[in-house]
Specification:
Elements lengths: L1 H18 L2 H8 L1 E2 L4 E2 L2 E3 L4 E3 L7 E8 L2 H9 L1 H5 L4 E6 L5 H11 L3 E7 L49 E4 L2 H14 L8 E7 L8 H13 L8 E3 L3 E6 L16 E7 L16 H20 L1 H4 L5 E7 L7 H11 L18 E7 L8 E6 L6 H10 L3 E3 L11 H7 L7 E5 L35 H21 L10 H12 L5 H5 L3 H5 L23 H12 L12 H9 L5 E5 L15 E11 L21 E3 L5 E7 L2 H34 L5
Parallel strand pairs: 5-6, 6-7, 7-8, 12-13, 12-14, 14-17, 15-16
Antiparallel strand pairs: 1-21, 2-8, 3-4, 3-20, 5-9, 9-21, 10-20, 11-13, 11-19, 15-17, 18-19
Helix pairs in contact: 8-13, 8-14, 8-17, 11-13, 13-14
Amino acid sequence: MRSSVIFVYLLLSILCVYCSQPKRIVDQMYISFDHARYCVRRLNGTHEIGCQSSASGNSGRMYMIDNDEEFNSYLMNTKLIDSSGSFIIVLNVNLFNTYYVDKLITSLSSKLNGLLLYLKSTPSRPEYFSHDDQCPNHRYSYYLNQTEIINWNSKGTGLFFRSFPFPIMLIDEEDDYKQLIKFYRQFNYSQSSSPTCGLELKSFQNAAHSSKTCIRRNDISHSLIDLEETFCDPVGGLNIYSKLPQSFIIIPKKRQPKSVILILTTTDSFQMFLKIKGTTGGAQQPATSLITFLALAHLIGQEQNEFKQQDKEIIFVTLDGDALDYSASFKFMFDMINGSFPIGNQNEEPIKVEHIHSIIEFQSLSLTDKLSLYTYPSSLINQTFIDTLVHNNPMIIPMAVDSSLPPASSQIFLRQTSSLSFPAYILTSTNQNQLSNHYYHSFFDDPSTLSINISSLEYNSTTEFSQWIKNIVESFGQTLIESFVGIKKNVTIKQEIINNLVYCILKNINCPLIHNVTNQSTGNSFDSSNETSLPFSINTYPVAATPTFPFVQNILSYFLRDRIYDTYNLNETTCKQYSNNDSFCSYTYVGGYAPSIMSEQSFDGYCVRSYIRSVSSMSPAFTIDNYDLSQTTYPAWTESRWTTISLRLFVIPTRKHEIITLVIGILLLSVSFIVCFILRYYTNISLLQPSSS
């Protein structure tokens, strides 16, 4: 009997060890899709937008719809719809628009527990895919009080700005799609009496209701030390600006009116579907504009001896946060109006509205044969400047005087000054009041839209796109010299420089260029982003760990450096000593970027003297004391925080299978009780018997 007890004990021990490894069982129960894109919750002063699941995730029976015929067939199949308590609809990405989404919400009501979109393959992507509004940023545009607005993005669905009570995810990798369709065909194509596939979407968001509510919850949480938690973060990154280091004005010297030219572009975009370590899109907007902007900065730096002869300061400005209601532009103008531009040194004469001569902006550029030049207002524009620019580059087409402006940061600069102070010149790609970008604010806005095969793109590849950029940049550089220096000069930029910018921004920011223009420690910080394109997304404050800002700062400061230092053979120690005696400029010792160095001599290293500034681009709504976030004076966007994002597939058993499982479970429970009773009974006997010794 004692040997039987020992055998049963060993058997139970083995079972306990096996059952103590639940992870293995879970892995067998679920199939995870780790590369899925997901929709998150964002909030403004009064509303919430986006998607989320319940805290435990949303699950339901999987039903796949590939085309319009299948869509209508599903909605007419009331027997199928009534057979399940909840559905996760797996929808072809080509059907993701307001018509199909609203139809599903209306027909399924509470049974619609989530949406999963799928892309079969890259060639099957939709012709248009933009979920921004048809008139982007119309809530804060220059034309706020006009009843008739232009739908610059007429194919935009506006779904990004809607609030959904269920999660929405997207799989865009072919392997994931093949795995999904494999299990769907294996189970869901069988008879109704067979098991079916189910999906679980988990994307619970911590924030809710509005930015005002969420920020208040943050403050309450932060006042309780033991329960400190942040539910959402204000949208905003960094506004960065730089200029030639010889051009700053030191108090008591006064800056002359109409003496500052601002050249603008943006560094942010948004997508409805985010992805960890995935492409963010933004190839046409803002990447193309940013490449043009940086190349022009290099050309101005290259010709700095010419620009020393005139009395205008040219300041290059990148704005981060304008994709959502021009938050960064509001912050820039707020700082300027309140005497906080530029920051960094109190002895530098502030730049105010009356000092602005004009604004030149690169916005939403696409690889097109014609580019549109919008100007406003007609009473202040310099027609000679326009004529010179068109003469230097015939593919630039001036729009009619006082035409409505497309979505651009300049709208806020004009709005905040009642368009009475300076003109704006906006270069963009439009066709009959339509943006040329079919994927405006979408992850589909990738290098293929610029006729670039990203897999074969090399560091110094000359492409049709990079030649197109060169044409634009040289015409602008030549026009600026003719208009503000007063001389005619054919200026050129090396094609290699633009090729390198294209490669770094669109394919791999951990490229030789960034290592050439930074010191070793800064350059090494880009190693973690190897083989990653420059991310263009919504940033939040405190500034997220995005490489976008250090990349732009270092490239811009190097391109606009004081070129006289290229002729000095300085070591790192001497370079640092210079910085101790100059509070206006920064000094960095770098290896040097050969295509940019025009000195006949080459050295082991170079001391870079540059003027670079950065400031938070967070909306003034979050910096003004006691500002009511429900007001609409300034945008008040926040982004929710979240903890877990997951997409898992599982098999839903039939009713018969569930009953059998229940019965077996009850039987096993009964057997375990009997075994335990027997063990306890014989153990008591063994303990009560006297020892044989």
